[in-house]
Amino acid sequence: MSETLLIHYNPATAQQASWSLCNNEGELTTPVQTGELAELTELSRRRPIVILLHSQCLHINHLNLPAMSTQKLMRAVPYAVEEFIAADVEDFHFVATTDKASKLTAVVGIDRHTLQKIIDMFRSHGIFIDKIIPDVLCINGNNTQWACLRYHDDCYLQTGQFEGMVLTPDLLGYVIDSKLSPADADDKPEKLLVFTEQDDDSELPAPGDNSVEVVDIRYNQHPLVIFSGNYKLAEPLNLLQHGFKQKRESTGYW
Known about the structure:
Layout: E1 4-9, E2 16-22, E3 33-36, E4 49-53, E5 59-63, H1 70-81, E6 92-99, E7 104-111, H2 112-123, E8 131-134, E9 145-151, E10 154-160, E11 163-167, H3 169-179, E12 191-197, E13 213-219, H4 224-227
Parallel strand pairs: 1-4, 4-8, 9-12, 12-13
Antiparallel strand pairs: 1-2, 2-3, 5-7, 6-7, 9-10, 10-11
């Protein structure tokens, strides 16, 4: 199979993206580029296309739901998350999977209009997407090892394979300490990985719980170098499922 075209996309800059080709081992095989979507038309042909979507436009939740069929689960999810979303849940598209570590149901929701607009934007340039995955779930965090990634004015925090959020820098320390409070003693990680741009000289988070080791990891150019090695772990929460499952115009990849 061809290398995957991995695209980091933020709807706030609708006509722009960053991208690279990625092999099956999760290694980038070309330099990361940033530019207009129109530049991707030729590169996207006969390749799987995976978008890592900026998670600021997503609602990521963990729910304690009883075991049930997928069909019944997807009918139950909107009612279960209604109290967490300040909008009409009928306007939302949801995907869900079981988080084996926590035994809870991991749910990601997005406004249907926003998702359709993203799909249509890429299609207008001849780019047919195979998967859309939350970028915050691609930074190597799990139940024993949390991960934080700082990029420009965003702080990504992943506290489980299917649990994460995007924060402003001033909130990062507060949220980490809140999650490490005594009430959550059983969920404390052994390490906090902090991925920081090579030239970023800001201070590292200093959790109040000194038992958590903080590991400083520097990356060059763009967080796609981090996302590429972890995005497959988040594929169960691919947004292009159910009513948004895509059909390619071509017969497949060579």
